[in-house]
Amino acid sequence: MLSVICAAVTGRMPQLSAGVMNGAAGAVELVVAMMGMMCAWTGLMKIADAGGITLMLSKLFDPLMRRLFPSCKKGGPAAKAICMNVTANLLGLGNAATPLGIAAMKEMAKLNPSQTADNSMVMFVVINSASIQLIPTFMGTLRAKYGSPAPFDILPAVWLTSVCALAAGIAAAKLLEGRKSG
Known about the structure:
- The protein has about 180 residues and is mainly α.
- It has helices spanning about 1-10, 15-50, 55-70, 75-90, 95-110, 120-130, 135-145, 155-175.
- The protein has one domain (about 45-175).
- The mean pLDDT is about 85.
């Protein structure tokens, strides 16, 4: 509203209208580009699950997952959902990882009879929020869309910040584990 008022007062309504239309067109183009990438990677995740790759990754990550999520049964639905979410995040598919994260949280809620989050649920939120991205697909797609000659030249910075954020988050969650709120 402030933009409309300022444009009306300064006599720049045509520029405002053109900016709004260009912004809307750009938003639609971006959504279509992102939708294609999301569909492709979500489909690949479904194929990976059906082909047993997530089971293999679950076994590979099992020693670490058992330490981070002791309430989840080995090979259970919660562990599988957590593994799929972590895999999607490793591939930089934050948006595709969201439904997997919701499924993981639902499975962990089934294991937790109380109405509050347990330590495993809190740890999952921390890991999901500060995940390591080996391939920042979303950011690479955005950078390529907007003309970056090397969209993935950000990899070292992404890896460093992801590792630091994840380490700090896990450390904080472990330090605060078991404390009662109140």
